Amino acid sequence: MVKVYRASDSEGIDKQGYSAKYVADIVFRSPVGTAGVILVNLAAGKRTAPHSHSHLDELFVASGPARIGVDAKVHDLETGDVLLVERSEVHWMEAPADRNVTLLAMKLPNIKTDKVDH
Predict the structure, then answer these.
(1) Global confidence as pTM
(2) Under CATH, what is the fold of the domain 3-117?
């Protein structure tokens, strides 16, 4: 089941020379073992093709406004929001019409060939 963790719901903590927000505390259904970290760069107004993964969960962190569709629901993300897509959930990503966006994606576990197009 998809889960969104909003950075705006997190309280900032001032540290020595920086501040921090604890955005998400995630428990996975099964041991992960490995993780793949991918920077997904989307050009303004572009959308990825819908796809799913059979054997991995995917975690996204937004570097700016972005939209991610998961099954029949659309999630509008802001900077720092975290979205967890579980295996078998069909999803796509989209940049706003007026700007490029980068999403940090983490494949858990790191299975590079686990992609099912829809």
Answers:
(1) 0.91
(2) Jelly Rolls (2.60.120)
